[in-house]
Amino acid sequence: MENKTQQTTKYPGVYVDSKGNFFYQSEFGTDRFTGKRIRKKGRKDATGKPFSSAFEANKELTRLKREYHKVNSYAHYKLTYSEFMNNVYIPAYRTEVEESTFTVRKRILEKIRDRFGSLTLRAISVEDVQNFRTWLLMSKEKGGAGFSQSYASLIFGSFRQSLDMAVEMQYLEDNISKKVKAIPKSKAIVPYWTKQEFEKVISQIYIEDFYENLSFVILWIYFYTGLRVNEATALWWEDVDLIKKRMRVHHMLIIKSRNDWKRNSYTKTEGGKRIIALDDDTVKILAAWRDRQKEIGLGKENDFIFSYDGLPMIKSTIARIIARYAKLAGVKKIQAKGLRHSHASYLINEFNVSVLVLSKRMGHSSPEITLKHYAHLWNGADSVIADEMSGNVKIETAKETKIHFNGNKSLKKRR
Fold first, then answer.
1. Whether 311 contacts 296, CB under 8 Å
2. Long-range contacts for 291-299 (Cβ within 8 Å, ≥24 apart)?
3. Residues 6+ apart with CB under 8 A from 61
4. Burial (0-12, 13-18, 19+ Cβ within 10 Å), 253
5. CA–CA dist 237, 226 (Å, integer)
C-alpha cells in the first residue's frame, strides 16, 4: 500500500516524508543466489550528510545503482549489442564449439552483430526483431537478404541464442526476440548421384595420369564408404587394413589451408568413431593407389591417403574435382557431402540395407538420425515384398449371403 506520509518527487525512487526530509527507496535487481529482490533505502549521502534536496538524493541513488551493476557484472544501460557480441558472446561461443564450426558460424554472428551493432541491448525492440526476421526471409528483389529458409533459420536462431546469454548474465531481464515467431527450418535436400550417374562420372577419368588417379580414388572412397568430408581427408594409411578389408574412422581434419591443419582424434559424434568393412573393389583400388604414391616417396603409415605431395586435400579442391567430372559426364554438379548421400542412396536402392546397418556405417549417433535424413530414400524399397505378396492369399468368396438382414428397409429393398 502507498505510504500516505510520503510524497513522490520528479526523480523516480526519490521521496520526501511528512517532515520534509528527502530519501531514496528503490529496487536494484534480483539476488542471483536467493532469487529475492534487492531493495535499498537511504537518507544520507556517501559522507553521512542528510539530503538537502531531491536532486542530491537522486544523485546518490544513481551512484549506488551504477556501483551495484558494476560489482555484480550486471548490464550497464549503455552496453551496445556490438560490444556484447565482441567482448562476451563470440569469445564464449568459441570455447564451446569445434574450431571448424566456429570458423563457419563466426561469419553468421558477425552479420547479426553488424545488423544490431549500434543499438544498446536494452534498446532492441520487438519491431526491430520482426523487421530482422522479415529481412532474412525477403528476396533480394524486394530489398531482403535473399537467404534460403534454412540459412535464415540458422541466423535468426543464433540471434535468439545470443540474447539468451544476455539474459543468463543478467544484462537483460528477458529475451525480446522470443516475442517474435521463430523461423522454422525447411527440409534441406542435398543433391546426390545415383549409381548410373556415378558410373558416367568415373568413365571420364583417365587413371593413368597421377593426379586423375587421385581424383578417382577420392570420388570412389566417398561414394563407397559414405565418410564425412573431413573424416576422409583425415585418413592415413595406418587407418586401412588391406588384408582384413577394414577401414578405421577415428579422426577428422580441421583445415584452414594445406599448410595449416589439425588432425583431431575424434569425429563429429560419439557414434562417428567406427570401423567399416571394405569391398574387394575398394581394396584393389586403394592398394593400387598406395603403389602409385610409393613411386614418389609417399604411402607410409602416417601419410595421407588423399594426397599427391604429402599435404592434405582441402574442400575447395574436392569440390573442383566433382564439378570438373560432373560437367564432362553431363550429370548434375553436387557438393562433396552429396557423395555421402550418394552412398546411402546406393546401399538402400541397390541392396535394401537395414536402418541399423546404415546407421553404423554412416557413423550416426542413433538409427533415428538415419531415418531423419534418409527415410525418404526407402520409398519403393518394399516393392519386392509387394510382388511376393501377390497371389499369396487365396481369394475365394461366398456364392450367396449367409446374413439375415433386418436393417434399413430401403436398403433391403435395393438388395
1. no
2. 292/210, 292/213, 296/210, 299/237
3. 11, 13, 14, 24, 26, 42
4. buried
5. 18
DSSP 8-47: E-SSTTEEEETTS-EEEEEEEEE-TTT-PEEEEEESB-TT
CA 18 to chain centroid: 62
List CB contacts of 5: < 8 A, sequence separation 6 or more.
Answer: 17, 18
- 249 vs 229: CA distance, rounded Å: 12
Side-chain-side CA neighbours of residue 328 (13 Å): 15
Phi, psi of 114 (to 5 degrees): -70, -30
Sign of CA dihedral 295, 298, 301, 306: negative
Q: 364-397: per-residue pLDDT in tens?
A: 888 888 887 787 777 766 666 777 777 888 888 7
408 Cβ contact list (under 8 Å, min separation 6): none
- Given this model, what pLDDT does residue 392 score? 81
- Name which of 212, 186, 221 is nearest 342 in CA terms: 221
Angle at the Cα of 86 from the Cα atoms of 85 and 90, rounded to 5 degrees: 65
Q: What is the pLDDT of residue 74?
A: 45
Task: Find the distance separating the first CA and the last CA of the chain, reported in whole Å.
Answer: 82
State mean pLDDT over 78-99. 86
| E-state strands within 155-270 | 240-241, 246-249, 252-257, 260-264
Cell of 225: 564408404
Interval 180-189: pLDDT, tens? 999 988 666 7
Alpha-carbon distances, residue 223 vs 53, 100, 276, 312, 401 (angstroms): 81, 23, 14, 19, 60
How many residues does this entry show for the chain?
Answer: 415
